[in-house]
């Protein structure tokens, strides 16, 4: 877990995108983003890619909060509202894990606890411990 | 369309992420990304957020290639392979449009035409022309 | 709403699939399915299509619980666990609506309140009332 | 493969839903559905659940066309057009497989080769052969 946290904090793309890893506990994580000019798209709105990256960072931290390395294999994201807020927050919770897979839901909210986006991620857990059992 | 192209080229997040708008035609678009250190995650792999943002940029250009403004409402992305390539390319094609909606498929490929990711985007077309007809 | 409820109860495919509409309130709905032999796949497991249809029925009821007609445009479903239960339940809640769109999350659970599947649906609301306002 | 084909042909839910397995080759499959009254929803339209089940059946056949057993873990489906056709067809193609995972795209079309729905499925391959190698 400590090794995974260090790896998360060494995420160059996340850093380059202005993201902060707020919390990382087994099975869950929080990230935040202070909106800056480089997060905007050509319409002057917060970029879908920036919102995705914030949620993806929380997802990666949550599924890598155990002793296995996990990589994203599928993600769905729904954009509910445009952003009118100086900050965005993402909160990731694993909903289920098997030996080889981890399902995770991420909610992106703004300063007013308004739901901005819902993110559903599925990760493949590499190098599972040899003693594990279970369906997948 | 020209106004939309200017807007796409003014996408600050895309620029900040090192993306290039290669082509923008009615209903389709291509983007590219030369992999740089800031595209990597804590595992030293190209970040899922960077791959998403590349695909999302092509998606945004394709659905904004007409005379209406379109915003992303839902996206699904599947990550098929890790990246071993200096460049990535995204090619977006609208598969269907109605008055209010645009469906778009984006393929992300590497230097060897290997498929890296498949992206399925759905956009809401704002301010549709008053004369349009159709189901949605 | 009453008209929509009648329409939901007239859903032939849902009836043919052995589904029950348990509850339908503005913005939410519950459905159930008593597992029968015709819900099984070639492996003797409850069919993904049956689980989807149960969730989809709750989704349809929730987004059609208002005075507008709504049709599904995109759905993502994650299958977390195989089913070991005589009954399945789906609970749908709209997470956000605009003039033209409705986002809805559906949880499928078994007799032991175990989460079986998560369903994320997006519907297009047809014939919106002329007096509505808003982003989409 | 023969065992898997037999299993597919023993899919009770698919049979109950009026589906036909037209073709099953390594990595791809085709299914069809002759529209019947029990495929309709409360609006008299072909039910999203019926379209999903048709696509899901092709997906299951494609990912089970090898010597491993595969189960669906995530699916996204986009509904592009309402159905005005007596028949529907689904064509599934694996886009990539690893030891443990299979990605598959399914196109649902009508009698006029119009695209009705796009389905993106991800399957977990159980009991992978001990000699396999690769990333996942």
Task: Provide structural commentary.
Chain A is of the alpha+beta class and 136 residues long. Chain A has a single domain (2-126), classed as Roll (Thiol Ester Dehydrase, Chain A). Helices cover 21% and strands 43% of the residues of chain A. Chain A has 3 helices and 6 strands, in the order ααββαββββ. Chain A has helices spanning 2-9, 12-16, 48-63, and strands spanning 19-25, 28-34, 69-79, 87-97, 101-110, 115-126. A 6-stranded antiparallel β-sheet of chain A has the order 1-2-4-5-6-3. The radius of gyration of chain A is 15 Å and the shape is globular. The first copy, chain A, starts with a helix and ends in a 10-residue tail after the last strand. Residues 131-136 of chain A have low confidence and may be disordered. Chains in contact: A-B, A-C, A-D, B-C, B-D, C-D. The interface between A and B is large, with 40 and 40 residues.
> Major β-sheet of chain A, in short?
6 strands, antiparallel
CATH architecture descriptor of chain A: Roll
Terminus-to-terminus distance of chain A: 22 Å
CATH topology of chain A: Thiol Ester Dehydrase, Chain A
**Average pLDDT over all residues of chain A:** 89
Integer-rounded radius of gyration of chain A: 15 Å
How many strands in all of chain A?
Answer: 6
Q: Any idea of the CATH class of chain A?
A: Alpha Beta
The run of helices and strands of chain A is HHEEHEEEE
Helices and strands, with pairings:
The structure is a homotetramer of 136-residue chains.
Chain A: H1 2-9, H2 12-16, E1 19-25, E2 28-34, H3 48-63, E3 69-79, E4 87-97, E5 101-110, E6 115-126
Antiparallel strand pairs in A: 1-2, 2-4, 3-6, 4-5, 5-6
């Amino acid at each position: 877990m400590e090794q995974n946290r260090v790896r998360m904090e060494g995420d160059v793309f996340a850093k380059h995108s202005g993201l902060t890893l707020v919390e990382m506990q087994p099975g869950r994580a929080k990230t935040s983003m202070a909106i800056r000019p480089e997060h905007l798209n050509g319409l002057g709105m917060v970029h879908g890619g920036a919102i995705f990256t914030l949620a993806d960072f929380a997802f990666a931290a949550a599924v890598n909060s155990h002793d296995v390395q996990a990589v994203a294999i599928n993600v769905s994201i729904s954009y509910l509202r445009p952003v009118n807020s100086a900050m965005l927050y993402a909160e990731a919770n694993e909903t289920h894990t098997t030996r080889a897979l981890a399902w995770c839901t991420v909610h992106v909210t703004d300063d007013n606890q308004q739901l901005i986006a819902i993110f559903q991620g599925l990760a493949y857990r590499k190098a599972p411990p040899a003693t594990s059992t279970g369906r997948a």
